[in-house]
Design a protein that fits this description.
Length: 302
């Protein structure tokens, strides 16, 4: 099986109707499927191919050492079939599936493995009533990536405004990527073209000033007083802004528009609340709960 064929097979398994997976490998139980790999297949190329469709991976094991924090909601179903014989394992989450690629010991040999396993829905119900919206987003996506550090003083100085507290937390915890592969989060210092929060804001401001466009009417673009500041977009060309009205950025409402912003949906809540409700409420105007029961964050960080 060639690399592209293997990645296509992974995609078919991930996108198939939900039914119990059962592996044909001797001694393996239900809940996953291992895919046959040729000895000549380059595992690094396979990892690149999967990453091209499902974003950056998370390491569950490296050099024979397994991350001790891994549990059922953060990738354990990819390790369980191999027990202590796992050498390396990378993981990707997509809806109700885990995708894994790595190396394991089989007898006296080392073999490459690629598998798809069932991914249980992360638990949100157990959160305390006073959990923040950011904590709820982390819980509902099962996110366990490494947090990043951002020089917010420098970012805010360049933008000429303070930013909402919950967005800063989202940006540090999640980094560059997309919720449910749909809502892309713009963060400072992103390596992904077009997804750097500050550079994008400067681009829109420059475009608005040069063109004199009425594209965003009845609103202006930041740094115009009370102007729009974009913090995310969707794969369907929806755009998500703050309306920077008032001196307290934690009270800025969210405005959402379609590709041509002639209609606006106003949401009087924070960006983190918007994301959480988008993931969990079927009545949300940009709902992903209509399509997925299990949610994830697709990272673009290297």
């Amino acid at each position: 099986m060639e690399r592209d064929e293997l990645v296509d097979t992974v995609t078919r398994l991930v996108g198939s109707d939900p039914e119990p997976l059962k592996c044909r490998e001797k001694g393996h139980g239900a809940g996953h499927v291992c895919l046959a790999l040729s000895d000549e297949l380059d595992l690094a190329g396979v990892v690149d191919g999967i990453s091209g469709r499902y974003g950056s991976s998370r390491r569950l094991a490296m050099g024979g050492f397994t991350d001790p924090t891994v549990d059922a909601t953060t990738g354990l179903p990819l390790l369980a079939p191999f027990g202590t014989d796992v050498i390396d394992m990378r993981a990707w989450a997509h809806a109700g599936s885990w995708i894994g690629a790595g190396t394991v010991r089989v007898g006296g040999d080392v073999q490459h493995v690629v598998l798809v396993a069932e991914r249980p829905a992360p638990v949100v119900a157990g959160l305390p009533p006073d959990a923040t919206w950011v904590e709820r987003v982390v819980a509902v996506t099962g996110w366990a990536g490494e947090a990043r550090t951002v020089d917010w003083d420098a970012v805010e100085a360049r933008l000429g405004t303070r930013l909402p507290t919950d967005f800063k937390q989202l940006a540090e915890i999640f980094g560059s990527g997309a919720f449910d592969g749909y809502l892309t989060l713009y963060v400072p210092e992103s390596d992904v073209p077009g997804m750097d929060l500050v550079e994008h804001a400067e681009y829109l401001a420059g475009f608005a000033a040069r063109s004199g466009t009425s594209l965003w009417e009845p609103y202006g673009i930041h740094p115009a007083p009370g102007g729009l500041l974009e913090w995310g977009s969707s794969e369907q060309a929806d755009q998500f802004y703050w309306l920077t009205e008032g001196d307290d950025p934690d009270r800025w409402p969210v405005l959402a528009s379609e590709d041509i912003p002639d209609t606006w949906n106003r949401f009087d809540g924070t960006a983190a609340e918007f994301v959480f409700r988008m993931l969990t409420e079927r009545s949300h105007p940009h709902s992903m709960a209509r399509y997925y029961d299990t949610h994830w964050f697709q990272s673009y960080e290297e």
